[in-house]
Amino acid sequence: MLEDGMTYPARITRLKGGDYSITIHEGRKHQVRRMFEAMGFTVKSLKRIRMGTLQLGTLTAGKVRELRRDEVEALGA
Predict the structure, then answer these.
(1) Residue 40 carries which DSSP code?
(2) Where along the chain do its domains lie?
(3) Exposed e or buried b per residue across 9-43, where buried means at least 16 C-beta atoms within 10 angstroms of its C-beta
């Protein structure tokens, strides 16, 4: 449990080379870093690949694209 309370269970899959795939359902401040620190690990880098129905896909760092109407609606904006 994190110091700011319980969170929904995370799904963690170990990948190659010491990497992990983590699925969380809420985004508390530094949640992933704090979860791993609580287990004795140091997080060197994080990469968000999806938020809700939005996927990063081939969009590279620093680049943007306009959201489609259905994507905006799915976000509840």
Answers:
(1) T
(2) 11-74
(3) eeeeeeeeeeeeeeeeeeeeeebbeebbeeeeeee
